[in-house]
Each structure stands twice: as structure tokens, then as C-alpha cells.
Amino acid sequence: MYRSHRVGVFGVAAASLLASGHAFAAWDFIPNALEWQSWPEYCRVQYATAGQGTPVPYDGFEAGKTLAVSWRATLGERVFDGLHHYCASIHFLSRSRAEPDSRSSEFLLHRAWDDAQFSYTRADPKSPVFPAMSVTVAQILVAMKKDEDAIDALKRSIEVQPERLEPYVMLAVTYRRQKKLDLAVKTMEQADAASGGESSEIHYNLGLIHLERGDLDAAVDYAKRAYKEGYPLDGLKRKLRAKGPPHRRRLKAHETAALRSRAVTAMARNRCSVHSRVRIADHSPASSNAGCMDRCRNRSSSLSTRISADRMCFGRNVSRTAGPATTAGAACRGDPP
Predict the structure, then answer these.
(1) Do residues 144 and 40 share a domain?
(2) Is residue 77 exposed (0-12), middle (13-18) or buried (19+ Cβ within 10 Å)?
(3) pLDDT tens-digit map of 91-102
């Protein structure tokens, strides 16, 4: 059970907002081109339609105005109307991290805190965007050296929406910072159970934590699972190879077996039409090739409102075109299940 927020996150938030007053004043955040592109779609839509954002000459600004109704219905009216502050906090935090001047960095960090709290304290905990908000709040609190408040916010999000993986990952990262590796493992094992054991992101992070704990056999096992599931980063693989020949041989044997498996399944790809499309959100396949569709659909997010998929069977072109991210690293990858 998470600790009471009466003196923690919410108490600090109220004092900060009253002291600064900026969140209630004219909103002055303007994203640069890179920040605009890195925003989730709901942030771009809200910025374009809320009457708060300065018009920007970026792709999607005008088109975003047509999507406001659907996003308002998905996230909830109260959440959507105050979303621009949370969206700004994402980039105020990034700017703070990149700012070399300590005073300017601290100022940007407090801007991030004020904006994040303006949205977070008004959000419905059941809203699809609440777990992502909680992660951003926790990241800001960690940067402010308030790890325990960050842990409280993450535990609250997990308690309300235990199926969402983002807060688990950030909670494990926080425990790793504190050198509480047993708690980090426990947290990621809970996330693994919540994902049905199908998240390469979770398996990759479990491998990293076990490596830090010195349990090399467990680290290799989780690395094999993550890479079999198509995890794209090779940091864990490189760390394990650096540990010596036995672990290098185990990884090499796994990679050889994976190549053989891909060769066996290569011919099966032709059974799936590269032109097949499916609306994953409502589980309505557009072709009769249902078995192939199901494998990709089952590995995709169930909460996204609009997802399109090309080359559904072992496809290389699967991408989210809309909808908030609902799991850590959730995507339909190209490797065979």
C-alpha cells in the first residue's frame, strides 16, 4: 500500500502552485520541432485545439484539430482539457536535464513540476493517460531527490491500473538507483505477471537487474527471452559477453538456434498477405487469415484506440498511428512468436 499523499506529492504540489502562480497564469510553452514530433498524438491534438498553444508550423498541427473529439472521449473531458500542462512538463524536464547552467536547470525542473502537478492532481486515475503522467511525475521527483514521493506516486498508479507496465519499470529503475536490487527484481516480476510473460522490455530489464545482482545464469536466461521476442537494444548482450566465455557461449548457442528458427518460419511468411490490414482495437480482421492475424493482434496493445498493422504475420512494418502508449515497449514485433 502506498503512503499517504496528504503531506507528500499533493501537499508539495499545492504549495508549489500557489507559490509560483504560473500554472494559473497565461501558458507560455512553445515546443520546438523535435519536441513536437516526440510528443504523443494526444499532446499534439490538445495543443492544437485547446486555445492555449501558440500556432506552430509543424506537421499535424492543423490536422490535429479534427481529432480532438475522439481524444476527449478517450481520455475524459477533465483530463483532456488540462493535458497541455502535463505535455509541457515532459519537455521542461528534458530541457532541465540538458541545461548546463545549474540555476537554469533548476528553474526548468520546477517548471516541469508545476505543469505536471497541474494536470496530475486533476486527472482521473482510471484515465488511460494517468500511468504515463505518474511516470513523468516520478521522474521529476527523482530529479528533485524525492525518491520516496516518486515511489508513492508509482505505487498508486500500479494499484489503480495494475495492467499498465510503465509504472513498474520506473519503480524498478528507482529501486536500482537506491541499490535495492531485490525490490527491483520483485517489481519487475510483478510486471512480468501483469504482462502475461510476453513483454520483451520486462525481460530485458530483469536481465539487467540480475546481472547487477551477480546472478549471471538468470541474466542470460532473461536475455535469451528478450532477444527471442525481438528486443532491439544489445546493451545486455554486450555486458554478458564481457563477463567471459561461458556466458558468451550460451548467448552464441541461443543466437544460432534463433537463426535456425527464423529459417524454418521464413516460408510461412508467404501465407500471410502483405496487404492485410486489421483494426486491432475492435479485433475485426480484414482478411480470412485469422491465425496469422491473431498472433500479431495478441501482442499489441488492447487499449489503443486506433492502431493499424501492415504485413501482419512476422511483419516489419507494424506501427502505432494513433492512441496513447499503454505498455512499456508494447509493439507488434517482426520476430516469430
Answers:
(1) yes
(2) exposed
(3) 999 999 999 999
